[in-house]
Amino acid sequence: MAKKRKKLSKAEAGRIGGRATKKRHGIEHYRAAGRKGFMVTVARHWQGDKSGYLRWLRARGWLADVTRLFDAQPLGPDGTKCIEIPVIPDELEDGEEADPFEFILASIRSAPTPEWGGL
Fold first, then answer.
1. What is the pTM of this model?
2. In this structure, are 85 and 102 located in the same domain?
3. Burial class of residue 18 in the structure, from the number of CB atoms within 10 Å of its CB (0-12 exposed, 13-18 middle, 19+ buried)
4. What is the pLDDT of residues 77-116, one digit of tens each?
5. Is residue 23 part of a domain?
6. CB neighbours of 90 closer than 8 A, spacing ≥ 6?
7. What was the pLDDT predicted at 1?
8. How many CB atoms lie within 10 A of CB 25?
9. Which site in 11, 13, 17, 89 is 20 to 30 Å from 119, CA atoms measured?
């Protein structure tokens, strides 16, 4: 009598297929596919600007981190949330080092003065 086979979910089938492909072609197969996909995305959507696309990807990662931090923060007694957000330095020229104090001071100086005059 034939053994009854368990029906695979799509995730399980994909995992089995991915492992078979890795075994057959090696990890370099996936690296090459990733490089080609990156270059196609840059050519189609970023007019060849690789550094611009990388900046956008890093910003998306930063935004995901901020969202995760915000979602993890419980509501305060007044129904609000308050979190510390990591600073993203502005664009730097190649080879230029970021001075975190410079960015913090610039953000403070650029903030609007409150109507009541502040300190």
1. 0.49
2. yes
3. exposed
4. 888 887 777 665 555 555 555 565 666 666 666 667 767 6
5. yes
6. 103
7. 54
8. 12
9. 89
Cα distance between residue 2 and residue 19, in whole Å: 27
Structural domain span for residue 56: 49-112
Give the chain's domain count: 2
76, 40: one domain? no
Share of the chain above pLDDT 90, in %: 24
Q: CB count, 10 Å around CB of 63?
A: 11
- Angular region, 48: left φ>0, alpha ψ -120 to 50, beta rest: left
* Residue at 1 is within a domain: no
Residues 36 and 56 reside in one and the same domain: no
Asked if residues 22 and 29 have their Cβ atoms less than 8 Å apart, the reply is: yes
Give backbone dihedrals phi and psi of 14, rounded to 5 degrees, phi first.
-65, -40
